[in-house]
């Protein structure tokens, strides 16, 4: 029940009570008690989904799939890195010590602070698929796409034992690290995961979804080369 519901309730008063301020206040206070209960009920109903759950509700989903909320990794904002890492920051300067990124490892091993909901939701996505997958090609495509929020994934087989999966989004360091936990089908020698811009991937003739080379005169045209994770 929202404020609109209170307004609707007051609109149903009998004519003789419509101008009675005390009676209207009484009805409003009465309906307000149910308002909080109804809001809580709606949260239990609508915010128990993986995409909408937060806090303890998300913890409950994690417990169901067998993945308690882990410790917090290093905050990727402010981490030092080089040009090929589009999520990292560069060097600082003598004039501005706040510029640039911090030299840290990927994970803050000593941290006991739980990870945030967005990262935890990402891990739960991967865990749900891992709980039920046989790691066929279709299962792997589904795992990658679901883990990263429904992004496009393309599969390339370079030899019978060397599959490659092109992930249609630039991943940050934490997201990219998740591929290390993806199961691999028995008998597969090696798997590569590439990430690229979903809207501007580079490719060759015959791939209608990709773009070609750029030019010296215009570096904005053409597609982006995939980055091996």
Using brief descriptors, characterize the structure shown.
alpha+beta, four-stranded mixed β-sheet, 4 strands, elongated
Plain-language structure description:
By secondary structure, the protein is α+β, with helices and mostly antiparallel strands. Among the domains are: 3-46, no CATH class; 133-228. It has 6 helices and 4 strands, in the order H-H-H-H-H-E-E-H-E-E. The protein has a 4-stranded mixed β-sheet, covered by helices on one side. A hairpin with a 5-residue loop joins strand 1 (153-157) and strand 2 (163-167). Residues 106-112 have low confidence and may be disordered.
Shape label = elongated
> Largest sheet, described in full?
4 strands, mixed
The number of helical elements comes to 6
CA radius of gyration: 26 Å
Estimate the strand proportion: 5-15%
**Widest sheet: strand order?**
1-2-3-4
The count of strands amounts to 4
The low-confidence runs, each spanning 5 or more residues with pLDDT under 50, are 106-112
Q: Percentage of helical residues? A: 25-40%
What pattern of helices and strands is seen along the backbone? HHHHHEEHEE
What is the residue-averaged pLDDT? 75
The first-to-last residue Cα distance is 48 Å
Q: How would you classify the helix and strand content by structural class?
A: alpha+beta
């Amino acid at each position: 029940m929202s404020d609109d519901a209170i307004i609707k309730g007051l609109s149903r008063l009998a004519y003789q009570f419509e101008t009675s301020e005390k009676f209207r206040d009484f009805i409003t206070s009465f309906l307000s008690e149910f308002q909080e209960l109804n809001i809580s009920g709606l949260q239990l109903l609508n915010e128990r989904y993986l995409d909408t759950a937060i806090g303890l509700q998300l913890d409950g989903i994690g417990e169901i799939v067998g993945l308690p909320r882990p410790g917090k990794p290093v905050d990727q904002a402010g981490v030092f890195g080089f040009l090929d890492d589009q999520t990292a920051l560069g060097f600082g300067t003598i004039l501005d010590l706040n510029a640039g990124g911090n030299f840290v490892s990927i994970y803050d091993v000593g941290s006991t602070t739980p990870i945030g909901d967005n990262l935890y939701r990402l891990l739960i996505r991967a865990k749900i698929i891992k709980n039920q997958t046989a790691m066929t090609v279709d299962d792997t495509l589904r795992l990658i796409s679901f883990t990263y929020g429904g992004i496009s994934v393309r599969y390339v087989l370079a030899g019978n034992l060397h599959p490659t999966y092109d992930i249609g989004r630039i991943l940050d360091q934490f997201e990219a690290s998740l591929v290390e936990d993806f199961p691999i089908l028995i008998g597969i020698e090696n798997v590569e995961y590439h990430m690229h811009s979903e809207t501007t991937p580079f490719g060759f003739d015959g791939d209608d979804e990709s773009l070609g080379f750029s030019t010296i005169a215009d570096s904005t045209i053409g597609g982006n080369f995939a980055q091996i994770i």
